[in-house]
Amino acid sequence: MIRFLTFLLAVLFATVAHAQDPLRLELTDGVIEPLPFALPGFHAETAGSEQVAGSITQVVAQDLMGTGLFRQIPRSAFISTPASFSDPVAFADWRAINAQALIRGAVAVTGSQVSVKFRVYDVFSGSEMGEGLQFTGTTDGWRRMAHKVADAVYSRITGEAGYFDSRVVFVAETGPKDNRAKRLAVMDYDGANVQYLTDSSTIVLAPRFSPNGDRVLYTSYESGFPRINVLDVSTVGRQQLTTQQGEMAFSPRFSRDGQQVIYSLANGGNTDIWRTDLRSGQHTRLTSAPSIETAPSFSPDGSQIVFESDRSGTQQLYIMSANGGEARRISFGEGRYGTPVWSPRGDLIAFTKQNAGRFHIGVMRTDGSQERLLTASFLDEGPTWAPNGRVIMFSRETQGAGGTSSLFSVDITGRNLQRVSTPAGASDPSWGPLQR
Amino acid sequence: MTHALKAALLIGALALSACTNADRFDNPDAVNLNDQAGIGQTGLGAAGNPDSPEYFNQTIGDRVLFAVDQSTLSPQAQSVLAGQAQWLMTNSDYLAVIEGHADEQGTREYNLALGARRANAVRDYLVSQGVAANRIRTVSYGKERPLAVCSDESCYSQNRRAVTVISIGVTS
To answer: Which residue spans traverse the membrane (chain B) (predicted)?
Structure first.
């Protein structure tokens, strides 16, 4: 009996303590248990808005579940369901099914306009998290509105910026391995709304979004030689970065202000890193070594560049000033390291590692410490960061004559590895910014 | 030569140029093929004709292979390239594009750089043997154009290559 009372007190105490803490999911390596949330279907407030309301609710749920951080409580477990958006919240009913967060929303369609409003509640403290928000737009943009709702929910619960209302540019692949057709494509982060930016008449490689998502850099063989193009996403107009005859240019990336491009230039068999100012057209050579220097990526503040070089005899990662000069090696583990990408937060560098016949996507701190491998397969490569620096997308190619490439995403803790749905083969993703 | 034989050779020439020129330059041979007199002079002739592209591709050998992650030329590769150089000096109407390739073990960017190294190693060797540098261009395909598609050394060794693609043209 005493034991039972103690247990009861402990439960009560825990509940009270819990009730005093605001709901906050700390994104650390320790988060293993997904946070349970309740998401009653968004109310259809106008005649004919039922379908959009249902679709939006579904996408909000998919976004949150896709992070691996949240768990949706099935509607069959609900004790009560609010009759309208303005109904008071029956917190006791949500607590009883152990929902920690409650998301309520409503959708109204008027002509070609749709508006979505929502509120998020911390069930155990019985309070609203932040204030309700409303998004309005055209009906064909309903997915973006759903992503915005999910971003707001994610942000309020985790304290981190979201990443759902974002796009990814990638290479769409079809055909056999020895005659693969490649074209640039852009899609929502979840694989929806695929649009093609080039045809498949020539090889295109490794597109990179500009920081505000208006342009894409990529490598094209349309001249017969690898050259870098700048493509305007809205007009699909493209321009070639000036290259001298005999030179091959590839592996481009934008600076944070979108005005500079760093890339590799191969001349006379030697590959070095160069920078071109898009306004002045001025080219500056940043490395000059007989070794291969490639895959440069700016630090978020633009002051440094991380790149790969085989100057030590094998591919390793180095950091130098954005103006070139002395570089310090940061990778020292076994194997080869390539394609470093600086995280948007500045604290980590994602890379491809090749060791003992396997490929890995990994992250390390900018001084090379705390290396952590997130994936392993026959061929993983080309990491790109979600705009909030919590998730990495990359290409995975399967083995053998029938090998195909597809896109995967993984949390920086190494959990929640997921295939990103694309219409056919896909490689070389570049994750764009959170849209406004 | 009968018309039928000429036609057969013509088709052969078209098929060959289609597979060797890798649609990079506007195929200059194609223009000549409409000109009967031109065929008589530059047609492939017998496979044994040492001035034919066929001879270059098959008898001398249009490609050399490399060890894993290497761009150094083996003695065997050097002997093939010496033959290529000799042929190019005899047949001075021809230009060469050297395509450097890598196997799939490696990142895309690194393999592009590695392919550039391999193509350049071949270029340097041909130039050292006396071929004018302005007749040669190099291009790297990295791991984008594998020849053999399996994922083991039997295929990888064929893919780590530099291919000398010849075509008639004017020097730049």
So the answer is: none
